[in-house]
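FIELD: query
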Amino acid sequence: MKVAFATQDMKRVDAHFGWAKNIAIYQVSPTSHQFVEAVQFDGDLQEDGNEDKLAPKLDVIKDCAILYVAAIGGSGAARVVAKNIHPIKVNEPEFIAEILVKLQAVLNGTPPPWLRKALLKGRERTLDFAEGTDHA
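FIELD: result
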């Protein structure tokens, strides 16, 4: 699954989603993680109420299952969730490398329901009524 990080320094989750200079994207699996891309944003990113600044960021993260941020506004969060992306707020700047290791460990165990749902992003869901189970 793809995971996005709002970052100013490309090392830590240390940015408000709307104000982030960079969005770093990684591919994460239970056994590995790999850097995919970083997208840099310019302009007046700190202008509150400017919803247009979110559109390019939402486009960049559209294939991601999770978005890590230091903060996110209510309308930004609603727009992220509407794209089936799970936003996660960190309480203080946290190294992306450490988050990736923790996320891999959770994927190796029994992921919580919200993470199992996030893992299904981009996959077609099929219901097997004979078995009564849900398959991805």
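FIELD: remark
The longest helix spans residues 96-108.
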